[in-house]
Amino acid sequence: MEISAELREKDRKFGEILKGMGRIMVAFSGGVDSTFVLKRALQELGDDVLAVTAASETFPTREFDAAVSLAEGMGAKLMKTEVSELTNANFVANNPDRCYHCKTGLYEHLKQIAKDHGYPYIVDGSNVDDLGDYRPGLQAKTEQGVRSPLQEAGFTKDDIRALSKELGLATWNKPSFACLSSRIPYGTRIEKHKIDQLDLAEAYLMDLGFYQVRVRHHDKMARIEVMPNEIQKVVDNREAIYAKFAELGFTYVTLDLQGYRTGSMNETLDIVKAAREKKVTI
User: Fold this and answer.
1) Is the CB of residue 122 less than 8 Å from the CB of residue 111?
2) CA 266, CA 272: separation in Å to the nearest integer?
3) Chain-centroid distance, C-alpha 132
4) What's the distance, Cα to Cα, between the start and end of the chain in Å?
5) Dihedral angle sign, alpha carbons of residues 166, 67, 86, 107
6) Sheet with 221-226: strands ordered across
7) Per-position DSSP letters for the chain, written without gaps between them
8) Measured between alpha carbons, how far is 276 from 135 in angstroms, rounded to an integer?
9) Quick check: 200 pLDDT over 80?
10) What integer best gives the mean pLDDT of the chain?
11) What does the alpha-carbon distance between residue 225 and residue 228 come to, in Å, rounded to a whole number?
12) Residue 26 and residue 35 in contact, taking contact as beta carbons nearer than 8 Å
């Protein structure tokens, strides 16, 4: 893929933003966006960059381990830390502002690390596409003073993937990932056993070779989202998939005919808000 002059200019601006900060800590998840940020930060700032990866109940061990390997493979200074969302009552309640409470706790934790180690800036991998969905975590980011240089430079997800490929980053075509709590409907409590069910269910589908997967948790029912071109593959493997999901504790296993889309749980937000205003059980 040929890189346009417009994208080259964005990348130049991005580099200038990074250099202007001088010394930064990267909130590093190992996803497409934060991997690109870390790589470019290392190019621009070298040893003045620290990657911090946080383990938590809602971040699968496979993702944490992959992030650690990525950072080490790039030669980055890496700090591993741990946070616990399930000790936060506001997070566990799983109201529509759940992500705000999660990100507030995370960024407060990272701010202390940055202060202790002398890093004046914390940066994340948010890009301009993230501004198009309901994301209360962005408010927490702003309140805690975390910067998003990709947004500042005008990067879209496609921009990041294109330049990641040029840089030889293995994450250039990695599927998008969000914490496992985002699979549970608003108003339903976040509990460890549900997180474990989702982790194992999605890992099973990925082992079958599905590219982009979400398993949405509706009590005894699992709702599977895959890319539209892989829907037939679910049907072809339906008996094995049902057997595995039944083993994990699901009575019903359904396939979402719209296919994978980001933030599908947000489609019920108006329903959730109305129900809470009327004190209706949902």
Assistant:
1) yes
2) 9
3) 15
4) 47
5) negative
6) 213-218, 221-226, 252-255
7) -PPPHHHHHHHHHHHHHHHHH-SEEEE--SSHHHHHHHHHHHHHHGGGEEEEEEEBTTB-HHHHHHHHHHHHHTT-EEEEEE--GGG-HHHHHT-TTHHHHHHHHHHHHHHHHHHHHT-SEEE----GGGGGS--THHHHHHHTT-B-HHHHTT--HHHHHHHHHHTT-GGGGPPP---GGGGS-TTSPP-HHHHHHHHHHHHHHHHTT-SSEEEEEETTEEEEEE-GGGHHHHHHTHHHHHHHHHHTT-SEEEE-TT---TTGGGGGHHHHHHHHHTT---
8) 20
9) yes
10) 92
11) 9
12) no
Amino acid at the residue 230 = E
Which residue has tokens 């381990």? 65
Q: How far is CA 205 from the centre of its chain?
A: 18
CATH class of 180-277: alpha beta
Q: Rounded to an integer, what distance in angstroms lies between the CA atom of residue 235 and that of residue 12? A: 46
Q: What is the pLDDT of residues 130-153, one digit of tens each?
A: 887 667 788 899 999 999 999 999
Instruction: Report which residue type is found at 109.
Output: H
Domain over 5-173 is classified CATH 3.40.50.720: no
Res 124 pLDDT > 80: yes
pLDDT higher than threshold 90 for residue 278: no
| For residues 152-158, average pLDDT | 97
Tell me the residue type at 82.
E
Residue 61 has pLDDT above 60, yes or no: yes
Which residue has tokens 């990709």? 150
Q: Give the residue extent of every domain in the chain.
A: 5-173, 180-277
Give the per-residue SS3 of 197-256: HHHHHHHHHHHCCCCCEEEEEECCEEEEEECHHHHHHHHHCHHHHHHHHHHCCCCEEEEC
Name beta bridge partners: 24.
49, 121
Q: Give tens-digit pLDDT for 239-265.
A: 999 999 999 999 999 999 999 987 666
Entry pTM? 0.89
